[in-house]
Amino acid sequence: MKAIVDCNNFYCSCERLFRPDLWSKPVVVLSNNDGCIISRSDEARKLGVGMAIPYFQTRHIIDKHDIAVFSSNYHLYGDMSWRVMETLRTLMGHDASRVEVYSVDEAFMDLDHIPLEDLPAYARHIKYTVEQWTGISVSIGIAPTKTLAKLANRLAKKNKQLSGCIKVLLTEEEQRLALQQTRVDDLWGVGRAYAVKLINWGITSAWELSNMPEEWAHTNMGGVTGVRLIRELRGLPSIEMEEELVDKKMIATTRMFGRPVSEIREIKEAVATYISRAAEKLRRQHSAAGTVSVFIVSKEQDHLTDFKRGATISNHTTLPRATSLTHELIKAATGLVEVLYEHGKEYKKAGVMLSSLVPDDSIQGNLFAPHAENERRGLMHAIDNINFSMRDDSVKFGSSGMNKNWKMRQELRSSRYSTRWEDLRKVQ
DNA sequence: TCTGGGGTCCTAGGACCC
DNA sequence: TCTGGGGTCCTAGGACCC
Fold first, then answer.
1. Average pLDDT over residues A374-384
2. What are phi and psi of A227, to 5 degrees?
């Protein structure tokens, strides 16, 4: 059997850990640039604050009820996430194949070693332990497949009082009932596009979908993906646990600007900054990139109605040789900016992508490379170490700019309680 | 005025080869 | 006049996830 363990309102829970005064108060956390609501406490949800809604649109509710608002604080969430996952790994005897970290606030667990009749009690044990050790409350769904476990988890969250945040689907009868209670558009693996199709075909419940033939799913729901979904709903495991720590195949850094930008110098600064960040991620997994891509999005008049479909233009460069050196990547990327940039336009967003990743086998120093290059590699390493230990961009390249007027807004960020000495809570 | 960021997997179709 | 078939690799784009 598989379990999914999911932290309740994760970002809000993290913020509350260090603010006991907010423990039963409504709280929300905003996306980068203070754009959208990306986490809300149960109290905030009950007051009518929507998920993924722009901050300014829900501002009237927030002000009226004096809801606590935080900009996102990823240092804090990343650290708390690590603590939760370590707890789960400890419970599994550090058997790496039994815990798959699925996202910052979710993990799948393989519970095949626990007798079926013990699973409800074992789920309570997991929940209790995580809450004791980290202060974060979790919901747990358990079922024969990942997809059914996700579905169980959803049902557990829907009625926390009744379920105690735990739902276990052991028997076929329990699974059938759960499928009948779930709409297709609430399934893991069914997004907006398929939901519209399915409902047009008259398939509205997960139960109905599970009874469709596999060939039909192959034709109409993205080939093997659709077949796997249907098999999973029927209790046949088709999406296996994944090994941890697989290297990324693509690394991206993209951001909205804090205000519209029209000067090429500023766009280059931003792109150089994003490349520096992406190159750090690249070196952390000991990879080198063979392709650099850049995109910029201009500010269109109709962005209010259709803001996602902005006028995005992008281009990429294949490097003569894969590299992990920041300055080489910056050179390629700023070159692309010159190709893409149009004088007189205003831009609201830019991003970089590193792909065609290969192992950086020259990390130890390449015998045939010029001496100067090995020195630069040493410098990269030193910069990464300093930036990591300071948990900030203490050292950076001149081309990334010093003023950064284009930088995103983050006006309401909490302290980095758990990762910076100067932000540690003081006990009087 | 104000709408996030970072990924993965899969398929179709074109280019190219024999 | 007559113009195959099958394989591989790559890319773009669509769909999904949190």
1. 68
2. -65, -45
Q: How many domains does chain A have?
A: 3
A161/A20 same-domain check: yes
pTM given for the model: 0.86
Nucleotide nearest A299 (Cα, C1'): B3
pLDDT one-digit tens code per residue, A19-28: 999 999 999 9
Give CA–CA dist A367/A67, Å, rounded.
60
Tens digit of each residue's pLDDT (9 = 90 or more) over A12-54: 999 999 999 999 999 999 998 888 999 999 999 999 999 988 9
CA–CA separation, A331 and A275 (whole Å) = 10
Calculate the angstrom distance between C1' of C4 and CA of A153.
Answer: 55
- The nucleotide lying nearest A196 (C-alpha to C1') is C15
Q: Which domain holds residue A228?
A: 171-244
Same domain, A212 and A268: no
**What would you measure as the largest C-alpha separation in chain A, in angstroms?**
69
H or E element at residue A137: none
Phi-psi map region of A48: left, alpha, beta (phi>0 left; psi -120 to 50 alpha): left
| Length A215 CA → C8 C1' (Å) | 27
Domain membership flag for residue A64: yes
> In the listed set A136, A169, A202, which residue is the last one of a domain according to the structure?
A169
User: Nearest residue to B3 (CA, C1')?
Assistant: A54
Cα–Cα distance list, A399 to A56, A148, A265, A273 (Å): 34, 50, 9, 8
Distance CA A219 to C1' C5 in A: 25
